[in-house]
Design a protein that fits this description.
By secondary structure, this protein is α+β, with helices and mostly antiparallel strands. Helix content is 14%, strand content 25%. It contains three helices and eleven strands; from the N terminus they run ααββαβββββββββ.
Length: 174
């Protein structure tokens, strides 16, 4: 790390507690149409035996897959994108678009199915989102998406499974 970058990062340290409590207005809500997503009381380690090692690393160790590596980047069929761990539906395919970032991107999630927290891994605060049910890390929300919402939900493909329209959604995992 260059000295200048280190010094700039250290200069932000006093502000971190103030920034950490800020989540964009309206995004902390976990209810949708009167239905509440009930979080699972399951330790992250319990998911290890149910997931491939790379999916576990993304979902429960907040790893990031290489850009351009997910087959979901090229998925164009109608359907639903579900959490790869607990199978909670997270995105409808009508909200998917090509952001040219190398990761599957969406303009919005299914309301109430994601939770949020501030992420400082790159020193500058970002809004991380995760599955509201199992807590699995999905990706980051940015404000550089297309109109009218201006949101880009940048998701790790390994954190999702695609269910084509007409196929039955799998039962939620517990």
């Amino acid at each position: 790390m260059k000295r200048r970058s280190l010094l700039q990062g250290m200069a932000l340290l006093p502000a971190l507690p103030l920034l950490a409590s800020q989540v964009p207005p309206g995004l902390a809500e976990t209810k949708t149409a009167g239905i509440t997503v009930v979080p699972l009381d399951k330790p992250h380690e319990a998911w290890r035996e149910l997931l491939a090692p790379d999916a576990y690393a993304v979902l429960f160790e907040e790893d990031t897959e290489r850009p351009g590596s997910s087959p979901l980047n090229h998925e164009k069929r109608a359907g639903t994108y579900i959490c790869a761990a607990c199978y909670l539906p997270l995105f409808d395919s009508q909200h998917k678009y090509d952001s040219r970032t190398g990761w599957p991107s969406f303009t919005q999630s299914i309301e109430g199915h994601t939770g949020f927290k501030r992420d400082f891994r790159l020193i500058f605060p970002r809004t991380e989102y995760h599955c509201a049910r199992c807590g699995g890390h999905q990706g980051h929300l940015f404000n550089d998406g297309p109109a009218p919402r201006g949101e880009r939900w940048c998701n790790n493909g390994l954190a999702l499974r695609f269910v084509p329209q007409g196929d039955a959604l799998p039962a939620l995992r517990s």
